[in-house]
Amino acid sequence: MAYVPHTESDRRAMLAEIGLERMDDLYDAIPKEVRFPDLDLPDPISEMEITREMLTLSEANLEVQHVPCFLGAGAYNHFIPSIIDHILLRNEFYTAYTPYQPEISQGTLQAIFEYQSLMCNLTGMEVSNASHYDGATALAEAVILALNQHRGKRHKVLLSPTIHPHYRQVVRTYTQGMGLTIVGDESLDTSSAMLAEMIDGETTLVAVQYPDFLGRIEDLSSLGEAANKAGALFCVVVNPLALGLLRPPSEFGADIVVGDGQPLGIPLSYGGPYVGIFTTRQQYVRKMSGRLVGETVDSRGQRGYVLTLTPREQHIRRDKATSNICTNQGLMALATAVYLSIVGKQGLREVAELCYHKAHYAAEKIDALDHYSLWHRGPFFHEFVVSCPKPVAEINNQLLDYDILGGYDLGQEYPALADHMLIAVTEIISKEDINDLVTVLEEVSHD
Amino acid sequence: MTEPLVYEISSPGRHALRMPEVDVPKAPLPEGLIREDLPLPELSEIDVVRHFVRLSQLNHGVDTGFYPLGSCTMKYNPKLNEDTARLPGFAFTHPLQDPETAQGTLALMYSLQEWLSEIGGFAAVSLQPAAGAHGELTGILIIRAYHKDRGDEKRTKILVPDSAHGTNPATTTMSGMEVIEIPSDERGNIDLDSLRGHCDESVAGLMLTNPNTLGLFEEQVREVIELIHGCGGLIYGDGANMNALLGVVRPGDLGFDVLQYNLHKTFSTPHGGGGPGSGPVGVAEHLVDFLPTPLVDVVEEGDEVLPPLYGFVTPKKSIGRVKSFHGHFGVAVKAYTYLRLLGKKGLREVADFSVLNANYLRVRMRDVYHIPYDRVCMHEFVAEGRWEDAPDIHALDIAKRLMDYGFHPPTNYFPLIVREALMIEPTETESLETLDAFVKAMLEIAEQARSDPELLKTAPHKTTFGRMDEVKAARQLVLCCWPVERDES
Which chain A residues are Cβ-neighbours of B56 within 8 angstroms? Predict the structure, then answer.
């Protein structure tokens, strides 16, 4: 029996102790007519056979270790130091539950406390929760925090059009029963200056992305100021890896910083599990959702850590809770803490600079081609938009023939950007990879 | 011994990871946008390894000992799961690459959708939700959208039994609907008279955990479902306790309209010390169009030579996207691996032995611990951690004392309808020897509660850490640390 240790004699002895004759007697409370359905499921196979089957399935996929990946758009192929997986595979970490019993969960608790600390230092904010599911749901939770802060009296949310499309969609899904007006993202032309003018006394939250979905970076201080002046909360969606180089959003007056921690040592894994970063100012801590770890002492006077401010949470406040979130992304938060510890102060800056310089080299080379041009001339981090001579899907198919995974087809989400490709360049991409991309792009523009 | 914080072992100028030199001409950095200070720790590789290995040693996990935490299904997490999820073709695929280049991934997701549908008795399953509570939100939004689509705008109430997980009422509030709490009767079932009183055209649905948090199968589940359906409401099933039902009964066959599965509980993907989980949602035929986007489907039928072509589709009246990309794919790989190994036969054994183990513990403990709803239970049961002749002892003291025996305590103080609750879920992967050792410890603790109550009040004694001062934590609110040398000069 798979993972079940009972012998036949154990089973009989246990049934006898309970006072039942047959295993089926355990289920008398279940309506007879629906009991024991004949399930249409495959028969069991051995570990050896599964290993082969999974290998075959996995090899049917194109994977980015074997081809240069210029695809980003919210999930990035960065180098993952070997140490991370060794730590994640520590049984004591991954086979534990949420740390409800602090005396025997100090490993998880201190790791989360360190994660919170690293995220505060990286984003420049004062408090961090223990994580949300991903960047998109973290943004949705930011909207809910703002609503609670304004006691439900303000109903307008301003979203920049260059926040990741999935994030904006998730905000709309989460809040569909809350009677909100979500505006600002109707046209790609809406700049942050225009967004600032849309802020009014009804506005509960203004959110922008930095670097934005199209890779661009700008000083967001005046938008932050405008939000602040109108009493609206200002939320910045970040790529945490970019903060190895760029000014933290706290310097732009951010009240909440959210983002996806995937670039910090988490594999692409076809979109998840990742980790949602959520940091804010101390004054909002009681309105913040999610787990929170705080420092304390034990009965022997030793420093220790516990889940704290639990009265905000679902298991205590039930229908008055700040959110229903329970299980979050503990192990992925640990991955990012290990990543930031191993790359450290110097390493994160180096990784971010490598991305920056390589992306700029690629942009310049592509811009120099006859039939391609850079769509945006201002500052960007490691992702940029290129207008192409033909449909992006077609180009990407041709790039695949050369074993290159091309960029994101922006026409899918932004009709104004049909035939525009969003290209991401990380530290993993070599100069040679970039030159190859440029050569093939040039070649495919002729046919 | 306590372990210092990463910032406390940091030393200026030390670094671990060597990155390659920049191999392209350097571009000028943008003015006014570059940060001055990056307050991250500076450590060597061995510092980092020892630090996190030491931290891990301060944890209790399923792999270090018995973990009978009620409603959490802390079963053994097969090592094979960890290996398959890390296969490069799964771990290094980009969520936005052309689905035609990720057919292995889509085939896996499609099979898992189909298998979960079959296990739960539903028409379709979405793998999008990230955890149980996320699945609940998805399910309740589906119920809301269903009524709205029919022009039935008056339905604004969700009925929630008082034995429900705390996430249920919180979920309802997030969906913009109102929570109405329904009491339990003396057998631990939903109080039918009270339920009947609330059944009218304002009811959008009922959230039902079955088996409920007392570990009991709702004896009148059919009547409950008929009442709700009779007034036009729908049934949401909290599938956190599905372990007991695998191959035994399908919620869909009972009349449940929506249910979330917890892959990190029932399907053995680990809990990770607080996630990542995965909370797929299954729905009956009339709700398929409302599922979150995207779903995996066959977009071109296969034939004798070619396999089918899988792609993503958006249900017609979808509530929208609940998460970026495609759910927790890495967790789905683990659940798929587990289901493939178990097959149909193994699945039924999971239910059988989890229920057998729980009942064995219940019967062995019941002479010493009061079990308020003492009948054949499913995968878990709830005992009271209190005795009249040991008035100072609480469930918490018993829980802490259990740590001295090397066991993780049961869930305590939940469900709220039992005084000093100890909610015990052994799971199917624990042997008779382990259960007997646990019973022995529980019986000894019951004796100590009378003979030496102080021993319990001051427990744990043998762990690295003693009882934590939770009040102090909430009062001082130290929630993060800063670089040690941070000198505001």
Answer: 87, 90-93, 107
Residues A221 and A334 in one domain: yes
Min Cα separation A189/chain B (Å): 22
Residue B284 Cα, gap to closest chain A Cα (Å): 16
Report the relative pairing of strands B281-283 and B258-261 from DSSP bridges.
Answer: antiparallel
Is residue A429 one of the residues assigned to a domain?
Answer: yes
Residue for token pair 């608790």: A109
Asked if residue B443 has pLDDT above 60, the reply is yes
Integer Cα distance of B7 and A435 in angstroms: 41
**How many CA within 13 A on the CB side of residue A45?**
14
How many Å apart are CA A298 and CA B469, to the nearest integer?
Answer: 6
| Contact yes or no for A273 and B275 at CB 8 A | yes
> Contact A430/B473, CB-based, under 8 Å?
no
E strand or H helix that includes residue A293: strand A293-297
Residues 85-124 of B with CB under 8 A from A: 85-98, 101-105, 107-108, 115, 118-119, 121
Locus of tokens 């405008």: A226
Chain B (326-355) residues lying within 8 Å, Cβ to Cβ, of chain A:
326-331, 333, 337, 339-347, 349-350, 352-353, 355
The 3-state DSSP class for residue A87 equals helix
Model confidence, pTM: 0.97
Q: In angstroms, what CA-CA distances link A174 with A171, A401, B43, B179, B350?
A: 5, 40, 41, 18, 35
A60 assigned to some structural domain: no
A355 lies in the same domain as A220: no
The ipTM is: 0.97
B214-263: pLDDT as tens digits: 999 998 999 999 999 999 999 999 999 999 999 999 999 999 999 999 99
CATH of domain B80-341: 3.40.640.10
In 3D space, the residue among B276, B34, B338 whose CA is nearest the CA of residue A272 turns out to be B276
**Do residues B378 and B402 lie in contact, with contact meaning Cβ atoms separated by under 8 Å?**
no
In a domain, A16, yes or no: no
